[in-house]
Specification:
The structure holds two protein chains of two kinds. By secondary structure, chain A is mainly α. Chain A has 15 helices and no strands. By secondary structure, chain B is mostly helical. The relative contact order of chain B is 0.14. Chain B has 13 helices and no strands. The chains are: A mainly alpha, B mainly alpha. The interface between A and B is large, with 50 and 44 residues.
Chain lengths: 336, 301
């Protein structure tokens, strides 16, 4: 196992350095004056320009700049935002709980609906129910989620007035930020009704962000279950006279879960991409909206830092899933 | 010795691989439906100028003063089947012209990423060693950044616009093809026919392109169909965020970006472009699934 962990880490570390290198290059490829790109000041005097170049170390050899950058990144220093003049890392950490809260609920929603739907589709293979689930999940997988969000707003917010259109909480409530998770913060505050308000704000974005993962989980669960249901030990269980429910729930599902859990873990990248669109549609103050705004405000240090941290997060979760998979499945662990 | 008459039942007529794929596709209802939609889209794209009643940038002032909803709603102008947008342009004509952009985007993105992916995959698989490590690590790096975010970052550098959006999306797909191509090369290389042509004196380039590549195509074709649909989705998403095709281009995602503030007053401007994206993407996914079952029976469940 130790050897397996070490090989995986050996693959991850160069990739991570590569991502640092990529973001290092990224900001240097932005057309225009490097000082303007990084500081956002325009039309400054040549003296100030030279001073800033020196201050940021842009007059030093490229490889020195790179090692400086790597050193900064490892200490959590991602540079300063051009717009807010705050450290990019602080900005990220302030906004990240909003995205995390949304992503967690989207995954819970996707799993709670997708897993049972996939299991039932496999058990009743070829039935109308199976075809409906597969058709619906392929539609969900093909969904332009930005449009899906607008449609849900059109129906539930504009027509039915059931759910709010944007943000995490109505302006009527003032809730102190303690954890950054709105559902927890509203419970901790004294504002009556704010918790339910936060829940109402969370419903549509959760559905929108959860749609694609739900489709993927349902399809994956179905095919994993079908594979397991064809195994000899299922026939044995049947021959012993076990009930369908017990066979499915105890014997089949447990074995089908391994690939499904892997797929759930690997959805992190999809979720971050989806968060960009979902947060833009619902004006959700999270990382996705922040990244899009960074581009339109030409806040390149923020974009650079955001890409780096998100890539690191995706890599870390993929590594974790990989290691867990190895822990659960010795065949993977001992494969060269 | 007795005289034995051998009765020989004739072997069933051999079916060519292409015909086999076609028969399997025909039997798959979803794939057939997808294929029909795609054919209709291609026809719409080719003959857009003849089918669309109006030009995509043609403005009707009367629909700016008073919104024109689709014909089945009250207050509609019968000339505009799906109504007109806020600038007074016929939505139906814009959607038909938009099919050109979606198919064009899909074709260009898939071509660029497929070509680059095959190149990297062949180099990796044939030469192994340092080249392999370098290429595959580079692919890992690209894969660890969510594709939409990477595409946005690339567009932030190159500038917005349809061409840059297509390049950006294409770059994010290269690793998928490179990995598939490399894996296919590695399974094909030890086979006898490769050794045979090597012994016969085929050079590396010939081995790569004429001998090994044709046998690696099946998974790449499936992936190409499936990423045709994601390419349309991602390019539309970039358009929606304002970094893809720019107005007045009737690209469906860009049309949605223009329309999102009108959701209360003119909901039809939001509904139809999105529906067009969904139907197109669904059609390619159905065809892709069908092709996968037809080309790779091992995966069929």
């Amino acid at each position: 196992m130790i050897r397996f962990v070490l090989t995986r880490l050996g693959l991850v570390i160069p990739t991570f350095l590569g991502i640092i290198f990529l973001t290092f290059i990224l900001i240097r490829l932005v057309p225009g004056d490097p000082v303007e790109v990084r500081v956002g000041e325009r039309g400054i005097s040549p003296e100030r320009h030279a001073e800033l170049i020196h201050q940021m170390g842009l007059d030093r050899p490229l490889y020195v700049q790179f090692f400086d950058y790597v050193g900064g990144v490892l200490k959590g220093d991602l540079g300063i935002s051009v717009i807010t003049h705050r450290p990019v890392m602080d900005e990220f950490l302030t906004l990240f709980p909003a995205t995390l809260e949304l992503a967690i609920f989207a995954m819970i929603f996707a799993t709670l609906v997708g897993l049972p739907a996939g299991v039932l589709a496999a058990v009743r293979r070829g039935s109308v129910y199976d075809h409906t689930v597969m058709g619906t999940s392929l539609t969900g997988y093909s969904m332009p989620i930005f449009w899906w969000g607008l449609l849900l707003i059109l129906f539930f917010s504009v027509t039915l007035h059931w759910t709010p259109v944007a943000k995490r909480l109505s302006d009527d409530y003032f809730v102190d930020e303690v954890t950054g998770f709105m559902l927890i913060d509203t419970l901790l505050s004294n504002e009556k009704g704010s918790f339910l308000d936060a829940v109402r704000h969370l419903i549509l974005p959760t559905i929108v962000l959860g749609t694609v993962p739900l489709a993927v989980i349902a399809r994956m669960t179905r095919s994993a279950m079908l594979e397991v249901l064809g195994e000899d030990y299922i026939r044995t269980a049947r021959a012993k006279g076990l009930g369908v429910y017990r066979i499915v729930a105890v014997h089949a599902l447990r074995n089908a879960l391994v690939p499904v859990v892997t797929v759930i873990g690997l959805q992190v990248g999809t979720l971050m991409g989806g968060a960009i669109l979902t947060e833009s549609v619902f004006s959700w103050p999270g990382i996705g909206k922040w990244l899009v705004e960074s581009i339109s405000r030409r806040d390149y240090p923020a974009l650079q830092g955001g890409v780096l941290v998100i890539a690191a997060l995706v890599m870390a979760t993929n590594l974790l899933v990989d290691l867990l998979y190895g822990l659960l499945n010795p065949r993977i662990r001992h494969r060269r | 010795m007795t005289d034995t008459t051998l009765s020989v039942t004739p072997a069933p007529q051999a079916i060519s691989p292409a015909r086999e794929v076609w028969l399997s596709l025909k039997a798959n209802k979803g794939a057939t439906a997808g294929l029909i939609v795609i054919v209709v889209l291609v026809l719409a794209a080719i003959f857009a100028n003849f089918i669309a009643p109006y030009g995509y940038a043609e403005v009707f002032k009367e629909c700016v003063i008073k919104p024109c909803p689709p014909v089945w709603q009250e207050g509609a102008d019968p000339r505009f089947f799906l109504g007109a947008d806020s600038v007074g342009r016929d939505l139906w004509s814009r959607l038909i012209h938009g099919s050109r952009f979606s198919l064009f985007i899909g074709t260009i993105v898939v071509t660029i990423s497929l070509a680059a992916g095959i190149l990297f995959g062949l180099l990796s698989g044939f030469f192994r060693g340092t080249i392999d490590i370098l290429i595959m690590r580079a692919m890992d790096i690209i894969l660890s950044i969510p594709s939409l975010l990477l595409a946005l970052a690339i567009v932030a550098i190159l500038g917005s616009g349809l061409l840059n959006a297509m390049i950006a999306v294409a770059i994010t797909y290269v690793p998928h093809y490179a990995r598939l191509a490399r894996a296919a090369v590695l399974t094909e290389l030890p086979k006898d026919y490769v050794t045979a042509s090597r012994v016969a004196g085929a050079g590396t380039l010939r081995l790569m392109l004429n001998v090994v590549l044709p046998n690696c195509l099946a998974p790449l074709i499936v992936q190409a169909t499936l990423s045709f649909s994601t390419a349309i989705l991602d390019a539309a998403a970039l358009g929606f965020l304002g970094y893809g095709a720019q107005a007045p281009t009737p690209e469906w995602g860009t049309m949605l970006a223009d329309a999102r503030n009108l959701i209360r007053s003119m909901p039809w401007v939001v509904t139809f472009p999105g529906l067009a994206i969904l139907v197109t993407v669904l059609a390619f996914n159905l065809l892709g699934d069908g092709l996968r079952d037809a080309l790779d029976p091992k995966l069929k469940r």
